[in-house]
Amino acid sequence: MPRLAVSLEFTKELGALARPVRRDAAVAVRRFLHNSPAGPTPERVRNARDPRVFTLRLSDRHRGVVLRQRDVYWLVAILPDAEAWTYAQRHRFTINPAIGVMEVWDAEALERVEPALRRSSAGSTRRLYGHICDTDLLSIGIDAQLLPLLRLMSTDAHLTAVEPLLPESQFAPLSTLAQGGSLAEAWRELDGCRCVLADVIDTEDLATALLRSPGKAAFAADRIELDRILTVPDWCTFLYPPQHTYSNWETYEQPALITGGAGTGKTIIALHRAAHLAKHGTGPVLLATFSQVLVNELAAKLDMIIDDEVLRKRVEVTNVDRLAYRIVAEHEGRPPTLVGDVAKLWQEAAGSRFGAAFLLREWEQVILSQNLRSLEEYLAAERPGRGTQLPPELKTNVWRAVEHVVGQLRASGRRTLLQLVSEAADLLGQATGDMLGDQAPGREPYRHVVVDEAQDLHPAQWRLLRAAVPPGPNDLFVVGDPHQRMFDTRAALAGMGIPVRRFHLKISHRLPHEILSFGVRLRGGGPVDGLAEGISEMYGYRSLQHGPRPMVRGYVSLDAEITGLVAHVGEWLADGVPPNQVAVAARTVELVRTARAALRAAGIEVKVTMLHGMKGLEFRRVAVIGVADGIVPAPEQLTPATEDPTARAHDLQRERGLLYVACTRANELLYVSYSGRASPFLPT
């Protein structure tokens, strides 16, 4: 019986085939795995650049390309007959001699590049890698057959031109050296391309190299495992090196923080970390996020990763507010009563000096954030992120206004969600202790807490999560991106008793370069604060794939814009894109209703939602409409500059973040429209 591994590309190509072809191919692979007489037979490829390459007939007109070494077979691709033969002839496969991972090369394309490079660099004496000897390049895993090509390069543009043809484990260190980095820095980049350390690397050992490459290959020991690889979403099985490393790390001695831009796989890491802790941890696991919609998404995805019912029950998936609600309800013996809208109370408390919005934000962002209990504490407290300076007499006035609102809520027996969270944190206590041995009401017996979308949690929610798990190895594992913040929270975890060790992701595996670049320019690319001490920047994010440029369309009227939307979405569906892979987003409720009604009138049923509703989701194609001046940013969501210029700046960044999140939900095609004058956020 062969030892069969399946590549990520094979599963993607198989999933794109028509259902009958997909079914026949899956049956053929099963038969091959079990060495059935009816199964396909490996066929040699003439003029192949790699003699280990064979093909397998998997359906009437499709073949699998397979790399073979003794009893090990790696299914690399499935393509129509002619394309499969061409692929098999033009590619070669190597094992990186420095880190032992698999590398796939389009050797024919690289051969065609050489004459163009030679002509381009003929008039220049400068060489991009002239200061680095062959021995040093070979020492960081650079392939010997690539060296002649590197010696022709004279500018960064030459390396950029061949980037799509190079394995990431080759491009990453070369890019660092091209930017003036040292060999040590190049080694650090190369180190990010592996997830398993190896003392000895055998460049002829295919099986071991495949095991070291979980983003490229997955072994199927039997039919059940094979069917799972071929049917579940790719992210359930294939993890890129940093994703695999961070989610399967045996022990984090202190809380871990994983940050990264859109499409870098933060949520996938959180899910796989929860699954790892369910299997290897020391007790119950909490997987938490900030909204119930995301809870439902996370729970459904976790069900696909963990197919063992016993292990699955070890992970509770919830949002922080529901956790707080349960803790307080258990403590008080009855469900707490929540207040929906407190705007009227703040209007009553507002005076001539401060408006209701200012007071509400001061309460949430300063008083509740720092858990201030008295006027004395408030007078002594810093007010980070608040631009208006308050002398003691004005702080006293603010405190009295807050006391008025809190008193009114107390008298009516109602609480806001943030109040509830703060009370739940107090109930758990500052020092949790061994909660498994303490079954008092409200004590949550978690040994591990994994947090997704961390940038949108309030400091009070962080205090609750810190109190919900005893300090110790593998206690808190946090993922988030300050640039995708949708609410005005800027919590530095170290200031709340969570001193994190930070890791950063820089490669977007979901977004094509064109959408990622558009999103970065739209977001502004500037630094933001939150989660870790200091600031986070978007510099260095990149994608390994390319696609169409985002379409930005301006219209003379809203009616024309909606007509354009219906036409574009109709074309997408006619192209064969499933309706559940299309989404439409807008900033206002009115625009959402208008777009939904127009699409339904045309017989089109796709997801239509507010910008907020796109959080945590992904689609093949996304249309973001109404990105016009006066709508984005939303004027009513901006603090007047005369009241608090710092708060207004934060408001503008939050609005940018909302648009950035919606636009980066598209992993294939993005369409942006406006009527009248374009939003100032749109890149020019």
TrEMBL record:
Biological process annotations from GO: recombinational repair
Reactions catalysed according to its record: ATP + H2O = ADP + phosphate + H(+); Couples ATP hydrolysis with the unwinding of duplex DNA by translocating in the 3'-5' direction
The organism's place on the tree of life at top rank: Bacteria
Residues annotated as binding ATP: 260-267
InterPro entries: DNA_helicase_UvrD-like_C, DNA_helicase_UvrD/REP, P-loop_NTPase, UvrD-like_ATP-bd
EC number(s) given by UniProt: 5.6.2.4
Keyword list, A-Z: ATP-binding, Helicase, Hydrolase, Isomerase, Nucleotide-binding
Pfam families for this protein: UvrD-helicase, UvrD_C
Key word Transcription regulation present: no
GO molecular function: 3'-5' DNA helicase activity; ATP binding; ATP hydrolysis activity; DNA binding
One cellular component (GO) term of this entry: cytosol
SUPFAM superfamilies, sorted: P-loop containing nucleoside triphosphate hydrolases (SSF52540)
Annotated ranges, domain UvrD-like helicase ATP-binding: 239-544
Top enzyme class: isomerase
PANTHER family, per the entry: DNA 3'-5' HELICASE, UVRD / RECB / PCRA DNA HELICASE FAMILY MEMBER
Protein name: DNA 3'-5' helicase
The organism of origin for this protein: Acrocarpospora corrugata
